[in-house]
Design a protein that fits this description.
- This protein is an alpha+beta fold.
- It folds into two domains: about 90 residues, Arc Repressor Mutant, subunit A (Orthogonal Bundle); about 50 residues, Dna Ligase, domain 1.
- Helix content is about 50%, strand content about 20%.
- It is built from six helices and six strands, in the order ααβααββββαβα.
- It has a three-stranded antiparallel β-sheet.
- β2 and β3 form a beta hairpin.
- α1 packs antiparallel against α2, α2 packs across α3 and α3 packs across α4.
- The mean pLDDT is about 85.
Length: about 150
């Protein structure tokens, strides 16, 4: 098991522990949805989570997927990010902070290390006395691949 897989497994275990601690039942559907998102290791749209969950459990319905993802987001088990005009989900980073860069052309999402925003936070505090909420932060723009394909962008 490589470091990334180990980190995902830890996040999945933490998510299960979080559900138990808060008194939520560990239903087969919840565990399956958690597993599907965790094993993907990428940002997943609701339709993709539903498709993969239904493949493993034919009785799964889309409403269950929506409710479960909403519950997981509310419990900080999953992070929600808008990519294009759709919401995508992934396991919450164990460090708590999670940031993305989203390309406005190809709609790919890239993780952004939190240390890049620390100077921004300090500047806002110093200049305005304003404490920004940077726990889950998304920056829109154009990725390098799309810049090379579409220089006019």
């Amino acid at each position: 098991m490589n470091r990334h897989e180990h980190s995902l497994r830890q996040a999945q275990d933490k998510a299960v522990e979080n559900l138990r601690e808060k008194g939520y039942r560990l239903t087969p559907q919840r565990l399956l949805i958690l597993s599907v998102v965790a094993e993907s290791g990428v940002h997943m749209g609701v339709d993709e989570v539903f498709r993969l969950s239904k493949k493993a459990y034919p009785y799964m319905d889309i409403a269950t997927v929506y409710r479960t993802l909403h519950l997981f987001k509310g419990l900080d088990v999953m992070t929600e990010v808008a990519i294009g005009d759709r919401l995508h989900y992934e396991l919450t980073d164990l460090g708590g902070r999670h940031h993305h860069m989203v390309c406005q052309i190809c709609h790919n999402a890239f993780n952004l290390n939190p240390h890049y925003l620390e100077e921004f936070r300090r500047a806002l505090m110093q200049e305005f006395g304003f404490e920004p909420d940077l726990e889950n932060f998304t920056v829109s723009g154009t990725c390098s691949e799309c810049q090379s394909k579409h220089p006019e962008a």
